[in-house]
Structure formats: C-alpha cells, structure tokens
C-alpha cells in the first residue's frame, strides 16, 4: 500500500511539474530582453555637428531593434501632457511638434508605445535594448535624413520624470525617444524608458 | 495492482495534456493579425487622437519659443497600454496548475480507494 501510494504521489508530482513548465513557456514573452537599469553615457562628441533645415520627420529607423515606422505629429493633451500615438495595431511613432525637428538645434522628441493593449507589442517594444552607439535615422519631409547615435538609455520612474533632461536646451541637435517600461500595475507601466541620442 | 498503477499514471498524464494544451495554444503571437490594414486616415475609436495639425502650423510655435522646446509638457507620457491578455495568461496558467494538482489528488484518492477495496 505504501509503495502504491508513493507511486501515485510521484505521478501527481510529475504532472504538476510538467504543467508548471508549460505555463511558464506560454508566458515567456513578458520577460524578453528588459534591462531595467540605467545605461550610462559613454559617447564623446568632438566632431562638428551639421544643423539641418527645419523639416518635420515622416519616418524613423532604428536598425538595432528592427524599427522602421512612419512618424505622425503629436501635440499637447488638454491636461498639458504630451499626446501619445493612437493605440492601434501597427502603431506608429509620433514626433512632439513643439520640439525641434530632427537635425535642428535642440532636443527633438519622438514617442512610441511599448505595448498597445490587445494589439500586442508597440513600435518601441524593444527600445530599452538600445546601447550607446546604436544608430537612429529620422527621415524628414524634405527628403533628407537626420542621423543620430544613441548616447544613453535611461529607465526612470514616471513620478520622477526628468523634464529638464528631456526637454531642456542642449545647444546642438539631439534626439529623445520615449516609451514606457518597468513593472506594470494594472494597465499602466511604472517607468519611462528614455533614449538620449546625439547627431 | 499493476492495473491500478497504470490507471493512476494514465489519469495523471491526461491531466497534464488537458492543462498544458490551452497554455501552449495561448502562446501568443505578438504580431497583430495581418488582416488589419494600417490606415493613415482613420483612427479607431479607442485611439488617442494624434495631432492633425499640418506642418505650417508648427512655425508660430517656434517663433514664440523661449527655449529650444517651445512648449514643455507637464508630467510623464503614458506610452504603454498593458495587454489585457497578460492577466488572462496568468489566470490560465494558475487554472492549469490547479487542474493538474486536482487531477493528481484525485488519482491518489482513486488508487487508495481501489487498494482499500481489494485488500
């Protein structure tokens, strides 16, 4: 009797173990490549920078994370926060139209979703994977392109959003890419992932 | 006795298959359905409205700019809508685990009962 019960328990334990492995596999996407720490800046800027004529961005390419997206224009929401792109399948990035156009002096700000609800991954799903030196190309309406290199990637709590670092004057053409990140509470993410890039 | 052991094992394996199949089938493809055609002109009902302002309207904002960014927004952007599927995934996984444990317990009870009746 004791031997039989032991076998039955072994079978049940094996079943539970296999069931647990299956569940973990199904949920694997939620942990894919999410560095949560701040990547320090490491790129010096010695060469002279070319300032481009004003032309709104119409496309954005980030080869390191497979992003090639149209860019729409965003303004301010009624509560004075920045608008974000629509939550749709095949969502796009959006340029904050009160910031400089890419290639002009100042921080040009482009935002995109990390996830778009039931539609799955957002256009900036893997933004946190960028590393210093990775290239970013903003295609402009006049046919030219502004080329940037990632300077640093920061993950910061939304409660401590670094407004000055993102929107403050920089005296040269720079780019900010912003999405959400960090742990989720309900439908919301706790943090913002911000990529700082220089021309 | 051997038949009893085999029946218990078969029951446990059935529980494993029944519980893991939904979880694997739910392994989501993060790629949205190909039938959804992106459209530049139409926004869905649940979408946050993008700015429809043409490029010419940007110029006045820049002329009144005190800094390089003409109007600094307040707060942090909300650029992530968590998938409702993630909660469903968790519930499904939890349910599957509970089903497996329940099936295992049932197998143990079945074996014990059969053993008691045959003894």
UniProtKB/TrEMBL annotation, chain A:
Family annotation (Pfam families): Sortase
Key words, A-Z: Hydrolase
SUPFAM superfamilies registered for this protein in UniProt: Sortase (SSF63817)
Chain spans, region Disordered: 20-47
Origin superkingdom: Bacteria
A single MF term (Gene Ontology): hydrolase activity
Protein name according to UniProt: Peptidase C60 sortase A and B
Protein species of origin: Streptomyces caelestis
Lineage: Bacteria, Bacillati, Actinomycetota, Actinomycetes, Kitasatosporales
Automatic annotation (TrEMBL), chain B:
Keyword vocabulary terms for this entry: Membrane, Signal, Transmembrane, Transmembrane helix
Composition bias type Low complexity, residue spans: 32-45
Signal peptide range: 1-25
Membrane-spanning segments: 91-111
Disordered as annotated region, ranges: 22-83
Protein name, entry field: Tat pathway signal sequence domain protein
Organism: Streptomyces caelestis
């Amino acid at each position: 009797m004791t031997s039989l019960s032991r076998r039955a328990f072994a079978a049940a334990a094996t079943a539970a173990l296999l069931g647990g492995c299956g569940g973990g596999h199904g949920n694997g996407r939620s942990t894919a490549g999410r560095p949560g720490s701040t990547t320090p800046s490491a790129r010096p800027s010695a060469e002279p920078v070319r300032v481009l004529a004003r032309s709104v961005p119409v496309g954005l390419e980030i080869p390191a994370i497979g992003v090639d997206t149209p860019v729409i224009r965003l303004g301010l929401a009624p509560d004075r926060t920045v608008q974000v792109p629509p939550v749709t399948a095949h969502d796009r990035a959006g340029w904050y139209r009160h910031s400089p156009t890419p290639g002009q002096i100042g921080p040009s700000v482009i935002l995109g979703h990390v996830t778009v609800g039931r539609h799955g991954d957002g256009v900036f799903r893997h933004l946190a994977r960028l590393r210093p030196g990775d290239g970013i190309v903003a295609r402009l309406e006049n046919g030219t392109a502004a080329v940037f290199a990632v300077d640093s990637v920061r993950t910061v709590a939304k409660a401590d959003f670094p407004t000055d670092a993102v929107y403050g004057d920089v005296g040269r053409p720079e780019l900010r890419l912003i999405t959400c990140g960090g742990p989720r509470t309900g439908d919301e993410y706790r943090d913002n992932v911000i990529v700082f890039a220089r021309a | 006795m051997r038949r009893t052991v085999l029946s218990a094992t078969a029951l446990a394996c059935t529980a494993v298959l029944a519980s893991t199949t939904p979880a694997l089938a739910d392994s989501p493809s993060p790629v949205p359905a190909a039938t959804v055609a992106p459209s530049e002109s139409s926004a869905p009902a649940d979408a946050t409205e993008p700015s429809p302002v043409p490029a010419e309207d940007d110029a006045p904002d820049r002329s009144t700019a005190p800094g390089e960014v003409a109007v600094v927004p307040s707060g942090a952007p909300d650029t992530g809508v968590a998938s409702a599927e993630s909660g469903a995934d968790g519930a499904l996984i939890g349910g599957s685990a509970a089903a497996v444990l329940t099936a295992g317990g049932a197998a143990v009870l079945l074996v014990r009962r059969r053993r008691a009746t045959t003894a």
